[in-house]
Amino acid sequence: MVLSPKTLRPGYLVRLATQITGNVKYDKQVIEAEYVTKDGRKKERWETEKTIHDPVEYEAAVKARGRARSIVIAVCSKSNYFGLLCLKERAEDLEKAMVEARKVADDFNATANVSRISVFIATGEIAQNDAEAMRGINAEIRGLLKDMEEGVKNLDVKVIREAADYANSGSPSKSASRH
After folding, report:
1. How far apart are CA 57 and CA 61, in angstroms?
2. Structure pTM?
3. In this predicted model, what pLDDT tens digit does every residue of 75-118 receive, in sequence order?
4. Residue 91's Cα: distance from chain center in Å?
5. CB of 141 within 8 A of CB of 147?
6. Which residue from 118, 132, 124, 133 is spatially nearest to 86, judged by alpha carbons?
7. Distance between CA atoms of 73 and 53, rounded to whole angstroms?
8. C-beta separation of 133 from 86 below 8 A
9. What is the rounded CA–CA span in Å between residue 110 and residue 105?
């Protein structure tokens, strides 16, 4: 595996998870127990019944959870690879958003009878660090050299050329699939 590092501006990785517990009950009835089909696949059939004890409170919980999430997401950027990212210069905004999101959950929980909202937020810092960057570059080069070595061993010109193109350009050639 060859690393494909992404360059990130200094800031924070934000892990946001919210949960509604209580008020909803699921009853699962197995219709057909697990079995193996003729072609070797496993199958099972069941029916699930969902019961919401207090629908009004549940809808309020869904809205409050959504509001809590939106407060944090508003100060961050969404990333396809890393979840939420928050620039270092928005650290104070992120801290305020975290407090506000938890307050939304606490306010809901203070009046709710059967539902509870939980808000979990964890942050990790993305630091601009030359030593870490160097380790990443070295790992990338080691991977490319390994690819080239394998290509030479197997007399595979395509593998050698793709690794060399990647090393030269910093990105794979159109025919390469370096993930």
Report:
1. 6
2. 0.63
3. 998 877 678 989 888 999 999 999 999 999 999 999 999 999 99
4. 20
5. no
6. 124
7. 30
8. no
9. 9
